[in-house]
Design a protein that fits this description.
Shape: elongated
Distance between the termini: 33 Å
Organism: Sphingomonas floccifaciens
Protein name: PepSY domain-containing protein
Number of strands: 4
Number of helices: 3
Order of helices and strands: HHHEEEE
Largest sheet: 4 strands, antiparallel
Structural class: alpha+beta
Number of domains: 1
Radius of gyration: 16 Å
Oligomer: single chain
């Protein structure tokens, strides 16, 4: 049983792990866009969204440099919730669940 759980854990972790080069590329793009004033800083996005997600645990964020969309991830009652935020305006533009 422990061997099965260990194998499943390894599969889940490897499937969920981001591609290192893609992550670095989006981080660099987000930093450049923020410095140039094209998007809001992540801290500002978090200040706007996290308090509105009462009862949910904040898990982290992804940034899509092509669309300038931050996707904040939350966990509430065993369900994942994604909140998509326009990085230029700070407006919530979508939400799962």
């Amino acid at each position: 049983m422990n061997l099965v759980l260990t194998a499943l854990s390894g599969l889940l972790l490897s499937a969920a792990a981001p591609e290192p080069t893609a992550q670095r590329g989006d981080q660099a793009a987000a930093s450049a866009a923020r410095r140039e004033g094209r998007i809001l800083p992540l801290a500002e996005i978090q200040r706007r969204v996290i308090p509105a997600m009462q009862g949910a645990k904040y898990l982290g964020v992804d940034f899509d440099s092509g669309t300038a969309v931050y996707t904040l991830k939350f966990l509430r009652d065993g369900s994942l919730i994604w909140v998509m935020v326009d990085g230029r305006s700070g407006n919530v533009i979508g939400r799962s669940r």
